[in-house]
Specification:
With 269 residues, the chain is of the alpha/beta class. The protein folds into two domains: 3-74 and 203-232, no CATH class; 77-200, 3-Layer(aba) Sandwich (Rossmann fold), CATH 3.40.50.2300. Helix content is 43%, strand content 12%. The strands form two sheets. A six-stranded mixed beta sheet has the order 3-2-4-5-6-8, with helices on both faces. Strand 4 (152-155), helix 6 and strand 5 (178-180) form a beta-alpha-beta unit. The longest helix is centred in the first third of the chain and has 17 residues, at 3-19. The protein starts with a helix and ends with a helix.
């Protein structure tokens, strides 16, 4: 196999890891890839498609951290939780990322596929907030006077959840059950205000896992034909295991990064 094809195969495997997060859809069929085995050193390509936020930066750092470990070699669950948390009836507000971007649209479709199953659930508003704190806070400030009763909030990111929480508290409103990802600032607010909340993570260590699979292929190890990682859920019971009061809000806490790398990327507050 040519070097170009080998790199393409690695990128394909890494892409499968990043896309298939729902879990349990396929059997773990093992594939004999011994024909791809070769001796190191390996030349591995990494496609860092976006470094405009801390998730993208951590994604790349997880990949580099896994490289360092081999010196010789080189979103439906939230909707279900929210429905259960508010007793299968009530007014729900949704806050999504960037309109038209597949990640934002797919996550909202997943949530809606759950909400639509329950006649008692009414989605009273859905706003695109570009995964940002500022736009989510502004959106919630506009929604508060229009909706005196908000029973649950679904968000596609912790930064948006933070904005929504601050707007509600500033208005003297209680914070209803809310969903988000593993943004450290969101977890801090969850703990500080003892919220009814949940965190569903798309971990930045996807890049690490992709590299591990690629290395298994190059070493001729049996490898699952399809690799699916479940979306890890942080609950009230596991909150203290993840929240980092000593680090900035922008860190994503479900990480495999060594502590020294975390401290370099996110100097303590």
């Amino acid at each position: 196999m040519s070097e170009r094809k080998r790199v393409g195969l690695l990128l394909l495997m890494a892409g499968l890891i990043a896309v298939l997060m729902s879990g349990g859809l396929f059997a773990a069929e093992m594939v004999d890839l011994n024909k791809y085995k070769k001796s190191p050193p390996y030349k591995v390509a990494f496609d860092i498609y976006y470094k405009g936020n801390t998730w993208g930066v951590q994604l790349f750092e997880e990949f580099k951290a896994e490289v360092a470990r081999h010196p010789d070699l080189i979103s439906v669950t939230g909707g279900k939780w929210l429905v259960e948390a508010i007793g299968y009836k009530g007014n729900v507000v949704g806050l999504s990322g960037i309109a038209g971007v597949s990640t934002a649209e797919d996550r909202w479709r997943g949530a809606m596929s759950v909400f639509e199953k329950y006649p008692g659930i009414k989605v009273v508003a859905h706003e695109y907030c570009d995964w940002t704190y500022v736009k989510a806070k502004m959106a919630m400030e506009s929604l508060i006077p229009a909706h005196p009763q908000i029973d649950g909030i679904w968000t596609g990111a912790g930064m948006m959840a933070r904005g929504a929480i601050e707007a509600l508290l500033a208005a003297g409103r209680s914070v209803p059950p809310i969903t988000a990802d593993d943004d450290n600032g969101y977890l801090k607010m969850w703990k500080k205000f003892d919220l009814t909340a949940v965190c569903l993570t798309k971990p930045t260590w996807l890049s690490q896992k992709g590299l591990q699979i690629g290395l298994d292929i190059l070493q001729g190890k049996p490898t699952p034909k399809v690799n699916i990682l479940p979306a890890y859920t942080i609950t009230k019971e596991t909150l203290d295991d993840f929240v980092r009061p000593d680090l900035p809000d922008t860190m994503f806490v479900n990480t495999h990064l060594p502590e020294e790398v975390i401290k370099r990327l996110f100097p303590g507050e």
